[in-house]
Design goal:
With about 400 residues, the protein is an alpha/beta fold. The chain has one domain: TIM Barrel, CATH 3.20.20.140. The protein has twelve helices and 13 strands. α10 links the parallel β12 and β13. α3 packs parallel to α4 and α8 packs antiparallel against α9. The longest helix is centred in the middle third of the chain and has 20 residues.
Length: about 400
Amino acid sequence: MVDVIKLGIKRPVTNPLLPDPEPRQVKYTLISADDHLMEPPHTFEGRLPAKLQDRAPHIVETAEGHQVWSIEGKPYFQVGFMCVAGRPREDHRLEPSRFEEIRPGCWDVHARVKDMDIGGIWGSVNFPSGVTGFGGHLFSQFADQELGLACVRAWNDWLFEEWYSPYPERIVPLGITHLTDPVKGAEEIRRNAKRGFRAVTMPEQPHRLGLPPVFDTAHWDPIIRACAETGTVLNLHVGSAGFAQMPPGAPMLELGSTLFGPMALTSCAEWLWSGFPARYPELKIAMSEGGIGWAAMLMDRLDDIMSRSGYGGSWPDSKNSPSEVLRRNFWFCMIEDASTICTRHRIGVENILFESDYPHGDGTWPDTQHVIERVLGDLPVEEIRMITHLNAAKLYRHPLPAVVLP
């Protein structure tokens, strides 16, 4: 039975979901390096130890008609977090509050693959964006750490069993891990890697969520080492630790979304100067939804620091410069970046991935193929192939279709 709680919040008025769009013509094979899923109501059912199962996150219904996740008796309003795909544009600033207000492709993998076919998306890396927290951090911060770890494992089990396994050629399995106990977090990464997970996510600036900063190498080393040793890609999604710091009175959504690029630059620089990429040459880090417009500038600045200003004296790698390590260990994900694709050779064409960001507001579905054509269409064919699918297939060890376009 669905619980009912009184919160005094009125449901927003929303229009019905739009009908399915016509399938788009597929000109390019795409492995989208950043899409999102919403957890269905049954995600945690039967997946926690018996003594903890009745404390698992579950859906409750408010007296106002919202469906919300309940975590340890507290409501968490992330059922339809930014799920605007398939909704009228005038509703894009309204959060869906019931599952029937969300396109089924957000939370049902069979419907998702159908939507991927409509939009011309072959493969998809799917981030959480609901009950786990954007970067999968919420469970790690439970007061009861045993329950938190059980929820992390249950979420990964659901992802493996219900989201990835039915379509292993279409879904790139990305997991979450336990962040407050890095030894257990590393064990979870290794457990998942053994069954085929290719990636894991965590907040890009953990210190903003009360976790140790990336410069606390003693804390984070077990997790980073596990990623490096298993070939698990560390996916850092811009905004997973929250919007940029803004002055009072600033328009949060407008300014916050404008600053995604600078936020990605800041996070990337922090991870680079943490020393982890220098210590672990095999570590792979993907900067998701931050674009590429800032990457060449960062490389130039790093070279200036090392060659002219003398500010880079603490760099730990005597054989490889910071910009060389950036190019070796990092990948950069673009949605459009039409005016800065010209910097691709400075960044490294082999380091650029394309994304659709389904079903979020920045997303290009169902017109992702059109966006690829507009942004990349004039590039040499081999470079288009690298950016749309070859780089991602290599990074995530993901299969390509029998017929690859172009």
